[in-house]
Amino acid sequence: MADKSKRPADMLDGAPTTVEEPGRPPTSFLEVRDLRIHFPTDDGLVKSVDGLSFKLERGRTLGIVGESGSGKSVTSLGVLGLHNRRNAKVSGEIWLDGNELVGASPDQVRRMRGRNMAMIFQDPLSAMHPFYTVGAQIVEAYRIHNDVSKKVARKHAVDMLGRVGIPKPDRRVDDYPHQFSGGMRQRAMIAMALSCDPELLIADEPTTALDVTVQAQILDLIRDLQREFNSAIIMITHDLGVVAELSDDILVMYGGRNIEYGSVDDVFHRPEHPYTWGLLGSMPRLDRERSERLLPIKGTPPSLINLPQGCAFNPRCAYSELTDGKSTVERPELRETAPGHTVACHMAVERRRRIWADEIAPKL
Amino acid sequence: MIAFILRRLGGAVLLVFIISAVTFLIFFGLPKLAGTTTDDMAARFAGKSPTPEALAAIKERFGFDQPLAVQYGNFVKAAVTGDTYDTGVEKIDCPAPCLGYSFRTNQSVTDQLVDRFPITLSLVVGAAVIWLLVGVSIGVLSALRRGSLFDRAAMMIALAGVSLPIYFTGLLSLAFVVHQWGLLPPVSYSSFADNPFKWASALILPWITLAFLYAAMYARLTRAGMLETMSEDYIRTARAKGLPERTVITKHALRASLTPLLTVFGLDIGLLFGGAVLTERTFSLKGLGSLALDGVVGSDLPVVLGTVVTASLFVVVANLIVDLLYGVVDPRVRHS
Prior knowledge:
The complex is a heterodimer of chains A (364) and B (336).
Chain A: E1 30-41, E2 44-56, E3 61-65, H1 72-79, E4 89-96, E5 99-100, H2 106-112, E6 117-120, H3 124-127, H4 134-145, H5 150-163, H6 169-172, H7 182-193, E7 200-204, H8 212-229, E8 232-237, H9 240-246, E9 249-254, E10 257-263, H10 264-269, H11 274-281, E11 335-338, E12 341-343, H12 349-360
Parallel strand pairs in A: 3-8, 3-9, 6-7, 7-8
Antiparallel strand pairs in A: 1-2, 1-4, 4-5, 9-10, 10-12, 11-12
Helix pairs in contact in A: 4-5, 4-7, 5-7, 7-8
Chain B: H1 2-33, H2 38-45, H3 52-62, H4 68-81, E1 83-86, E2 91-94, E3 101-102, E4 107-108, H5 109-144, H6 149-163, H7 166-180, H8 196-201, H9 204-230, H10 233-240, H11 245-273, H12 277-282, H13 288-297, H14 301-329, H15 331-334
Antiparallel strand pairs in B: 1-2, 3-4
Helix pairs in contact in B: 1-14, 2-3, 5-6, 5-9, 5-11, 6-9, 7-9, 9-11, 10-11, 11-14, 13-14
């Protein structure tokens, strides 16, 4: 059981490394190195994920945030090896508990799916098979990795449903997904994902399709279960509230790349990338006067086929003139600006911090 | 569930009534509007060159002078309780369910239907087995290897199968397989109970001809359904659980994509049981389809009416069975 409060605040274990010797076995539980997931299409090569690196330890939660099309979900499916190798080109390295997954055979990765790593999907209604009972779907997930009788697996399914807080689990186990309410369905989905006690849990927008009141319950549940199972969690969302609630570290993605990474404290209170400022500014908050407008990010997410030259964010960035013209020419590298806090921006660190403190923070 | 079945059953009975009434109206009501006299009408029910007495008897018997509603009432009554026809020459007994009497062939319509049905049944069941096996397998393989040489070739052949009329493929295969090469015995019908082998070998060609058309349609339908299902979220979930691809396809994808096919299959079977007109005519099989065609060509009204009502009954019953089966296969239907 990891006790997060005992970890030193400036621990660097979650920091992405820009230069990492390829092929060297990692020290972290999950380590993604220079992950690239490209889709060749008739219109050109869609670079959904383009050089993403991060690390994650057991018992910790990494929040990946970004707009639609920033590559969050593609990354999560990539870690699970769920991309069809015929239409997706995946390169880089994904190390999970000492096993490299990108170069592994599909069958090897398949055996790890569900057992070592599991996923909770956004919409539990469409993510569960309409023709099979919830119990049957959990039993199936359990028995594929555990050589047990149907009876034992069924008992385990009832057990799991009870643990995720479904009342009368011995009766609900024989119900179909459509007979569950949205929140209960997501609980059942979580029960299915956790049935084999996976060390890595990826939650892809787990609360987006749910009522606000139910959202909080589900987040609490995930947090409690993490404490119980000591699993590593990747929380993918565009909802910064969810990230703030649950994550230890945050990775901000833009155009398939990592543009800012740090602890929740760093990213919420000392963000340095103009895009992160934009995300924070467009988040509705109760403690703000209603007369004040939200501060949306202008423009639209970039095309992943033709990313803008230089910094991918430069066409939408209000501060691109402050980079001596570098932002339209050269792609900014991730640089560590404080222990565990990395940012990819051409602006000088001092200037970024001054803009945040003087212009952005007061408006939030 | 029981209320659901009763509701469907009631609807089905009502539908058969409506269809029979409309059919009756078309064949017995419309001719009057077109100026057909009651003598002409009676002549259609009579044998060749009828005597005036016989015509009068038929007119009297069917009540062509009476309102249409009364005539339809008599038709329904005969269907339920049976009837006796007095032609003036002899008395003919027609037990229930009596769908009329054909004076052209001197046989009750019901007897003709009962005689002909085994032929259509044999033809359709044999063809259905072939087209389900072949069509669905090709559709699934095509979907799984989308864009491959197999897929493109299969869809090309399927397009041909859908486009080529049965009297073309049927006559062509008859000419070569039976007459030119002598690979199969001439097409004929013999009872399955007498000699199953003979029954099958003499029907293989019409089976394949009919199945070619339907297999082509089913291959395309299965492929489209399978492609749609494979992109569903729950297929991704099945993979995320770590299921082997084979299980994902057979247990998760196939089950969901074959369910809509049930509706189509029920309708097709219902329609064909009423008579596979083109196939029967091409291979000179005396099934319900040929009977209906003979009735139309010879203006044998009782036969036309009888075959239409029977065919509609098959479609309605097939639909009913499909509806009930859907409740079994799809739990969402069962609970709504």
